[in-house]
Amino acid sequence: MRPRPEKKFPLLPRKKNSDKRNYGHALVLAGSRGLTGAAILASRAALVSGAGLTTLGCAASLQSLFSRSLVEVMTLGLPSTTNGALSIAGYSRIMAFIRSRGVNSIALGPGLGCAPSTVSLVRRLVSNAPVPIVLDADGLNAFRHSAKLLKTHRGPLVLTPHEREFERVFATAWPRGRKTRATLAKKLSKIYDGVLVLKGPGTLVVSGGSVYENPTGNPGMAKGGAGDVLTGVIASFIGQGLDVFRAACWGVYCHGLAADLAVKETGELALTASDILKFLPKAFR
User: Fold this and answer.
1) Which of 12, 21, 25, 95 has the most CB within a 10 Å radius?
2) Residue 207 host element (H or E)
3) Which domains are assigned to the chain?
4) pTM, two decimal places
């Protein structure tokens, strides 16, 4: 087990003669009425993790709410369902935005909900978006018992399931034991031609035959929102030029390290996803 994905964090130091265009444009597609926090956490995580530009694609009816909360993040108002979730009607606009605004990575899923129209949108984006996608939460739930549809992905794909999401998507029991989990993850990674991030104690990041077991993190992270932060971090690292496997490895390492730094102040019981977000800068330093 390596203490870090590699010896040196590859995104620092930044070049002195650079600007925001050098550090990628992350598009976060997240949130719905009652689940706005997930979108806020993922968007802020992408921004804090170095993305040159971050845009949140959200229901037009929620755009003003997000604009007040995310002053450094751009918002893209999109057609929505009656419960404020993204709708398939927004597909063409999202694809046009990806092409015209130079989007480099997509964080897809936090707080989206599982309305049929939203599920259709997620599936179509995975099949057709030409840039890497980090698929989490309701993005994964859109493939419940339909994992074979993941094979159609066009761009590089990172899947970040926790135990229950894994079982919903792949219709198989969460493997017990590190070796068993790694063996199954390698098999699934090859079948679906993607990176698997199996979240939990000793998070595994798997790409084909490559396996990284993460040493950072603590039980205080077992709380809603922590995964939304991770999704934003990984998408940001991809947008800045890391390949999807390295981005996922460094994402889980830094995410866990931030939690380890935060828990020294909060304790495990009180640790929140916002605390992890707050301590990301210290983790990067």
Assistant:
1) 25
2) strand 204-207
3) 21-284 (3.40.1190.20)
4) 0.97
